[in-house]
């Protein structure tokens, strides 16, 4: 048996199957949410999904330890590209200037690349400096993630900034950071929260947090989108109104057409597929996360364990936040649903991350 065939047969097939199913369902969901207005979105999503699956399988075959050599260059490039969003090359979307248009390449979101590069870089640091004093280690990691986090917050993209927190905490926990230091991080973060809310957020972002706590304060303004999302999901009932159903909240435009295929894709799914569809989708994500955690558990070295934990936490937080904001258990932050929401940059980055996790599984028996 050739090494390539052995790797193909030795994949984490639960991870592979769920990834393919969720990606295919994502194209279908984008189509059902936008076909009555335009074919542009689902056709682009199909192209990105095809390319993303190609990235997934290529990265799966490659040995994940090779990314150690690419971690620092990717980290530096991602910071430079994120900084370029503040120039004339940057484009605003949804109130945040977080997109970058490069001639001949197109538009993409460099902050998505930044967090992937940071996971690889922090994982590398934690593996090489295991015996460093925890306080000094926290200071070094803070210097690594501080730059891209501040650049992302200033765009302002509060949702993407939030993703960094659980991801880095998970990586620190897995690497063995003492519990007293984890508690100290939580306390310091809680004490800084009022400062971030008052000085780090735009007025419309603070309004979103306020309306999350009191939805009735501005029902025709800031609370309108979430109210309509709840109505749409609730109207889906147990089994939904059906695929491509007419006369829905989504079709009539009550759910904003500019975000229904990105931030509010779960709203369209809940309305058309109902409670059953929502439960099945969340169950699929649960299976994907379990497959990722199992790959992390079987990792051949600490680097594989740490980066797998980081990527798994990133996916979990995106799922929890995206679904949570559409059912009013989380504030609106504009995070996409992995593999399902419309968007090329995030889809490719998640496919890259899942490919690395699959590679960790494939090479789990190799002795370091």
Report on the architecture of this protein:
With 368 residues, the chain is mainly alpha-helical. The protein has one domain (3-362). It contains 13 helices and 3 strands; from the N terminus they run H-H-H-H-E-E-E-H-H-H-H-H-H-H-H-H. Strands 1-2-3 form a 3-stranded antiparallel sheet, with helices on one face. The mean pLDDT is 88.
Keywords:
368 residues; mainly alpha; 13 helices; 4% strand
Low-confidence stretches: none
Q: How confident overall, as mean pLDDT?
A: 88
| Helix share bin | 55-70%
Number of domains: 1
- Main sheet makeup: 3 strands, antiparallel
Tell me the number of helical segments per DSSP (H or I, 4 or more residues long): 13
What is the gyration radius calculated from CA atoms? Answer: 21 Å
Number of strands: 3
Termini separation: 23 Å
Derived structural class = mainly alpha
Based on Cα principal axes, name the global outline. Answer: globular
For the largest beta sheet, what order do the strands appear in spatially?
1-2-3
- Strand share of the residues? under 5%
Order of helices and strands: HHHHEEEHHHHHHHHH
Annotate the secondary structure layout.
Elements: H1 3-9, H2 13-34, H3 40-61, H4 67-84, E1 90-93, E2 96-102, E3 106-108, H5 110-128, H6 134-154, H7 158-174, H8 179-200, H9 203-213, H10 224-235, H11 265-297, H12 302-326, H13 344-362
Antiparallel strand pairs: 1-2, 2-3
């Amino acid at each position: 048996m050739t090494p390539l065939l052995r790797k193909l047969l030795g994949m984490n097939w639960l991870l592979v199957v769920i990834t393919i199913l969720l990606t295919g369902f994502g194209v279908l969901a984008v189509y059902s949410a936008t076909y009555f207005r335009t074919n542009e979105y689902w056709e682009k999503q199909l192209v990105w999904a095809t390319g993303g699956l190609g990235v997934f399988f290529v990265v799966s075959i490659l040995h994940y330890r090779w990314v150690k050599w690419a971690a620092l260059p990717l980290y530096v490039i991602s910071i430079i590209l994120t900084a370029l969003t503040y120039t004339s090359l940057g484009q605003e979307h949804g109130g945040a200037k977080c997109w970058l248009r490069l001639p001949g390449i197109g538009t993409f979101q460099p902050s998505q690349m930044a967090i992937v590069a940071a996971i690889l870089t922090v994982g590398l640091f934690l593996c090489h400096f295991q015996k460093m004093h925890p306080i000094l280690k926290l200071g070094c990691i803070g210097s690594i993630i501080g730059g891209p986090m501040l650049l992302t917050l200033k765009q302002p993209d509060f949702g993407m900034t939030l993703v960094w927190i659980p991801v880095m905490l998970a990586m620190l926990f897995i690497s063995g950071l003492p519990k007293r230091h984890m508690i100290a991080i939580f306390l310091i973060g809680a004490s800084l929260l009022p400062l971030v809310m008052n000085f780090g957020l735009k007025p419309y972002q603070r309004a979103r947090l306020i309306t999350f706590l009191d939805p009735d304060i501005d029902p025709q303004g800031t609370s309108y989108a979430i109210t309509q999302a709840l109505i749409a999901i609730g109207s889906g009932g147990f089994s939904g109104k059906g695929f491509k159903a007419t006369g829905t909240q989504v079709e009539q435009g009550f759910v904003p057409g500019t975000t229904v295929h990105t931030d509010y894709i779960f709203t369209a799914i809940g309305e058309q597929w109902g409670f059953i569809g929502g439960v099945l989708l969340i169950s699929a994500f649960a299976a994907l996360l379990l497959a990722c955690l199992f790959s992390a558990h079987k990792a051949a070295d600490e680097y594989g364990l740490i980066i797998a934990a980081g990527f798994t936490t990133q996916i979990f937080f995106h799922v929890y936040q995206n679904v949570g904001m559409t059912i009013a258990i989380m504030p609106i932050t504009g995070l996409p649903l992995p593999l399902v929401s419309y968007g090329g940059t995030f889809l490719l980055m998640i496919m890259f991350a899942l490919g690395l996790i699959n590679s960790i599984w494939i090479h789990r028996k190799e002795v370091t």
